[in-house]
Design goal:
It is a single chain. The chain is α/β, with parallel strands linked by helices. The chain has 2 domains: about 140 residues, Aspartate/ornithine carbamoyltransferase (Rossmann fold), CATH 3.40.50.1370; about 160 residues, 3-Layer(aba) Sandwich (Rossmann fold), CATH 3.40.50.1370. It has a 5-stranded parallel sheet. A 4-stranded parallel sheet has the order 2-1-3-4, with helices on both faces. α5 packs across α12. The longest helix is centred in the C-terminal third of the chain and has 21 residues. It binds phosphoric acid mono(formamide)ester and norvaline. Phosphoric acid mono(formamide)ester binds next to α2.
Length: about 325
């Protein structure tokens, strides 16, 4: 790393950063987003290179990291399992040693969390989790920023992260990577997650790694989870890597579709979010995702802005 660079920090799980660091990141996001909207050039990452490793498909993560890095003056290298030696059993530790000698930052989307942990353990540069079977921290970063933008007092301003405290997020669907990350965020930022999953698809507190039992409650009936919620959110019934279970999951999840009735049980000003891609008529009704409470397009766009703030923070530390 460059002399004067901040101490190396990875972003492998949501809990890798503290509440106060999230407050900082959201404030930087606001500034970086405003500059972008005004076509103001902001290129603090000139001469820096991001390696992006995709072992699973992606649209949003690829475009947001790639566009974000170019917009900040840097460049990217895109690798997949199929077109690199990762797919031919080169050890992950060796890949990390080599890639991190040539690039300044690495983003990985892969299967087991232990793959990214192993990569980070042998990396000379910061590593970002772009989704694993267990977590999707960059998505929750964007979701929280989007919530603050819409419901924070005066949008995103100083202390805006405080507006999350005491809020209720309803999670309807699979106890998956998104659900586990929501639980981590709740513990750090002081809100509660109402979780409703079909039997057999529950969240695993050990995977979530949360110790505060008060930050989440389990509901058998998704309607009950949505009651009084400030935000209702869901995700696909079958995540990447679990396609063999598709038919079984379709049957198990039939009652876990966020529809207008569930939204009506939430607070009148409740927002709807979905990390996308979405399947209308499965986990969410078209009238909800395309309806007035849905902020899914802002949520997707904010991946770009929050990740630019994250890359800036990991590479340059605090600005100003
Ligand atoms: N939400 C999300 O991560 O989307 P992609 O799979 O398209 O990257
Ligand atoms: N839970 C989904 C999220 C996709 C962005 C998956 O892992 O496939």
């Amino acid at each position: 790393m460059k002399p004067g660079a901040p101490p190396m920090k990875h972003y492998l799980q949501f809990k890798d950063l503290r509440a106060e660091e999230y407050a900082y990141l959201f404030e930087r996001t606001r500034i970086i987003k405003r500059r972008f909207k005004n076509y103001e050039r902001y290129q603090p990452l000139a001469d820096r290179t991001l390696a992006m490793i995709f072992e699973k498909a992606s649209t949003r993560t690829r475009v947001s990291f790639e566009a974000g890095m170019y917009q900040m003056g840097g460049s990217v290298v895109h690798l997949t399992t199929g077109d690199s030696q990762l797919g031919r059993a080169e050890p992950i530790a060796d890949s990390a040693r080599v890639i991190s000698r040539m690039c300044d930052l690495v983003m990985i989307r892969t299967f087991e969390q232990e793959r990214i942990t192993a990569f980070a353990a042998h990396s000379r540069v910061p590593v970002i989790n772009g989704l694993t079977n267990e977590y999707h921290p960059c998505q929750i970063l964007a979701d929280l920023y989007t919530y603050i933008e819409h419901r924070g007092p005066g949008g995103v301003g100083a202390g805006a992260v405080e507006c999350l405290r005491g809020k209720v997020v309803a999670w309807v669907g699979d106890g998956n990577n998104m659900a586990h990350t929501w639980l981590q965020a709740a513990e750090i930022l002081g809100f509660t997650v109402h979780v409703s999953t079909p039997g057999g698809y529950e969240v695993d507190p050990a995977v979530a790694g949360v110790s505060d039992r008060s930050c989440w409650r389990v509901f058998r009936d998704p309607m009950d989870a949505c009651r009084g919620a400030d935000l209702v959110t869901t995700d696909v019934w079958t995540s990447m890597g679990y396609e063999a279970e598709n038919e079984e999951r379709r049957r198990a999840f039939a009652d876990w579709c966020v529809d207008a009735e569930m939204m009506a049980a939430a607070r009148p000003d409740a927002l709807f979010m979905h990390c996308l891609p979405a399947h209308r008529g499965e986990e969410v009704a078209a009238e909800v995702i395309d309806g007035p409470q849905s902020v899914v397009w802002d949520e997707a766009e904010n991946r770009l802005h929050v990740q630019k703030a994250l890359m800036e923070y990991l590479l340059l530390g605090r600005i100003g």
